[in-house]
Specification:
This protein is mostly beta strands. It has no helices and 12 strands. The chain starts with 25 loop residues before the first strand and ends with a strand.
C-alpha cells in the first residue's frame, strides 16, 4: 500500500512526509500569521500562548526580546540606553497548557539632575523564559546600569563605567555591557550595550560613544544599543548596528531621535502542516 503523507518543507526545518496519523501542534494567542508550513504567533502586548494540541513533536521556536532602557540626558553627558535582553531557541518543549506572555515597556528618557537615571526597560516573559530589560542611561559622572544589556557610563570628567550586560546571567548570553566614559575633562557619555556587541567608550574630543550592535532574528535586527550623548561640545555617538526608531525591537534609547527605549516583543513559531 502506498504511504500517505502530509506536506513538509525539509529545507526550512520541516518534518518531511508523515503518516496520516501524524499530529501537528495547535495553539492560540497573540496575532497569528502563516509563513509557509509554519504558524507565527506575535505578541506586542501581554497575553497567553495556549497549546491546545501537543502533537507528535511538541516543540516551538521562540524569540523573547525585552525593552530597551532610556537614554540619559539627551543634550549632553548622557549615557546611551542599554538594549533589552535577546533570547531565542529553535526547540523549546511545551505541554497542553497556557503560557503567560509579558511584554516589557521601554524605559523613559533622561534624568532631571546630574547623578540621576533614565528608566530601565521592562522584562519580557514567555512561560519560564525571561529576557531582562536594558539598563537606563545615566546623566553625568555616574556609572551605567546593568540589564539585559547595560547602559553606557555618563559623561564629564569622573570616568564612570558602563553597566554590566547579561544580568541576570543566561546561556547563551542575552546581551552585553555598556561602554566606559573616557578619562579627561568634558567627555561625552558612552554607548549602551547591544545583543551583538558591547557599547563603545566615549572619547576626549568630546564625542559620545557608539551603541553596541544588535542581533538578527529572521532578517530583522533587535536589541541594538543607543548612542552615547556628546559632551558640552562634540558629536553624538552612532547608534548600534540595526537600531531603528521602531517599537517592539528592544533598542536602547538614543539622543535626539528616540530618547526612550523601544518596547519588547515575543514571537513563537512552529510547523502546523
Amino acid at each position: 500500500m502506498p504511504r500517505l503523507g502530509l506536506r513538509g518543507n525539509n529545507s526550512s526545518g520541516g518534518f518531511g512526509n508523515r503518516s496520516a496519523g501524524f499530529k501537528f501542534l495547535e495553539a492560540t494567542g497573540g496575532t497569528i500569521t502563516t509563513d509557509g508550513d509554519f504558524k507565527v504567533h506575535t505578541f506586542t502586548g501581554s497575553g497567553t500562548f495556549t497549546v491546545t494540541q501537543i502533537g507528535n513533536v511538541g516543540t516551538v521556536e521562540y524569540l523573547v526580546i525585552a525593552a530597551g532602557g532610556g537614554c540619559g540626558r539627551t543634550n549632553y553627558y548622557g549615557g546611551g540606553g542599554g538594549a533589552g535582553g535577546f533570547r531565542t531557541s529553535t526547540s523549546f518543549g511545551v505541554a497542553e497548557t497556557g503560557y503567560t506572555v509579558t511584554i516589557g515597556g521601554g524605559g523613559g528618557n533622561g534624568g532631571t539632575n546630574p547623578g540621576t537615571y533614565a528608566g530601565s526597560g521592562g522584562n519580557s516573559v514567555f512561560g519560564s523564559i525571561t529576557s531582562a530589560g536594558g539598563g537606563g542611561g545615566p546623566w553625568e559622572n555616574t556609572n551605567g546600569v546593568a540589564g539585559g544589556s547595560g547602559s553606557g557610563g555618563g559623561g564629564n570628567s569622573a570616568g564612570p563605567t558602563g553597566g554590566a550586560g547579561n544580568t541576570p546571567s543566561t546561556t547563551p548570553s542575552q546581551g552585553n555591557a555598556g561602554g566606559n566614559q573616557s578619562t579627561g575633562g568634558d567627555t561625552g557619555g558612552a554607548g549602551g550595550g547591544g545583543a551583538g556587541a558591547v557599547g563603545g567608550n566615549s572619547d576626549t574630543v568630546p564625542n559620545g560613544g557608539n551603541g553596541g550592535a544588535g542581533s538578527v532574528y529572521r532578517s530583522i535586527y533587535y536589541s541594538s544599543g543607543g548612542a552615547g550623548v556628546r559632551g558640552w561640545t562634540g558629536s553624538q555617538g552612532t547608534n548600534g548596528t540595526g537600531w531603528a526608531n521602531t517599537a517592539n525591537r528592544g533598542h536602547g534609547g538614543a539622543p535626539s531621535v528616540q530618547t526612550s527605549g523601544s518596547s519588547g516583543i515575543v514571537i513563537i513559531r512552529y510547523q502546523f502542516q
